[in-house]
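Fold it.
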Amino acid sequence: NQERQNFLNTYLLRLTVQKGENLAKQLDALSRQDSLTGLANRRHLNESLNSELNRALRQQQALTVMMIDVDYFKVYNDRFGHLAGDECLRQIAKLLSSKTKRSGELAARYGGEEFVLVYPVMDADLAEKQAIIVLKTIEALAVSHPNGHSVTFSIGIAVYLPTENVNLEQMLHHADAALYIAKENGRNRYEFFNKSMRQKKSSEVIE
């Protein structure tokens, strides 16, 4: 009887420990997830981008960061309300998540209507193709916008072959600077931070 009781006590203790470990893992995962969209949050983005920068540095492979902003989202929210705005962001999050399937790729919500895509082993040529795909995909989603058109994106792209001097803050800042140029140049387009990477300085979606 005592042996049986000891066995049961040990079993229950193991179950309790396992449940605690599982709960801790779930809480850790939630702490890295944006509550509205389910995408990675800023914490997860910073951790992953740091990891991918280090890997790119070791392997001397290109790394691409795209900063994405939903065009005229304030107008959308003001016209349709915040509940509709939240649903729009969830649809966009699902779309962006579908564009990050390979190992190391990440879709994150940066804040508000801004998102970030991280693409390891992606040079400027591939980044340009991927940006066009993302722009065409949001166009095909055809989410109605109060301006009479569908919801669109502006994209800023930073591509690096990392050196010891590159850090995640720089990459995010450079992608954001390129995003600003894209918005200044008319939105629904992409721009590279380092324009010398592209013979064609910018591109709109090809109709």
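The first strand starts at residue 63 and ends at 70.
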